[in-house]
Amino acid sequence: MTTRLRSLEICAGAGGLALGLEQAGFDPVLLIDNRKQACQTLRTNRPAWDVREIDLLEFDPSGDSHVYDVDLLSAGLERVQATATVNRTRGSDKELELLKATIMLMHGVQPRALLIENVPDLATKDVYRPIREFIAEELEHLGYQHRWFVLNAADYGVPQDRKQGILVAFKGGGIDAFVEPPKILDPPITVGMALGDSMAARGWRQAAEWAAQADKIAPTVVGGSWDRGGADLGPTGSKNAWERMGVNGGTVGDDVPDADYEWDPSKGRARMVTLTVEQAACLQGFPADWQITGKKTARYRQIGNATPPPVGRALGLAIGDVLKNH
Q1: Considering just the CA atoms, what is the radius of gyration of the chain in Å?
Q2: 189 three-class SS
Q3: Which residue of 137, 138, 195, 250 sits 20 to 30 Å from the alpha carbon of 298, by its own alpha carbon?
Q4: Do residues 99 and 77 make contact, with C-beta atoms less than 8 angstroms apart?
Q5: Across the chain, what does the average pLDDT equal?
Q6: Are 179 and 257 contained in the same domain?
Q7: Pairing of strands 113-118, 144-152
Q8: What is the spatial distance between Cα 35 and Cα 52, in angstroms, rounded to a whole number?
Q9: Same domain as 104, residue 54
Q10: 54 with 108, same domain?
Q11: How would you classify the pairing of strands 26-33 and 51-53?
């Protein structure tokens, strides 16, 4: 019988990272998130999971001794700003505060390993050097060795150009045995390959034509701000990339085209297709039976802000190999 490992999941969101880790052999003893919609999604899909609706900054592990010495502390934290936008009006103060809180949580929990997922710039750019130095100092003080690296979800079966900054740490010398997950898919899955069947689900006669020209991977699916606006497929550059595939990136649709829909991108966004929440979940690597709860915009926000489950699985397998064998 394969030995299962135990994890503590913070900022769990819609469960993308937790699901991937579950597939890799980790069972969460506790998951926390501060959003009611996300907690409902987690409970709907995994009623046996212990899900806590609480802000990470208010979480005190002393009241939950079962989280002590878990095999893995995992965190798909709220995204800090990419360096291209770091000087705009909305800063990353709250996101960096959550990152620091995660590291300070290591003092109380003392997991065997740590996994943090965020934007690639956090792992590579000089503007985030101070927070990386803070993390290095704290982890070294606690007896952990760590490594930063960047991977792209497209290399792990996710039909999307989604680069992710990853921090992995192990207590003692485990980092020397850690091998970054090897790419499992080359060439990657295109949008047309991923969504062709769903576009044809209501008998749309142009579904195959659309899928054939949607022969690229998707731009990064982003959830956008929880504080304003409706659901759309991201910033201007992303919307333009979607339009080149005949998709209206300015909104998220309620259903796929019916049999009589006339798709003609030459006539502008009004004659392009729109992606549904379910299709966005597919592009993020969620299985079809994973239910995202809430209203449309809240569901899309959860999906766009999630860690793709296939990436979580690949990282979990690599971390689990170290924990089980070294």
Answers
A1: 20
A2: coil
A3: 195
A4: yes
A5: 93
A6: no
A7: unpaired
A8: 10
A9: yes
A10: yes
A11: parallel
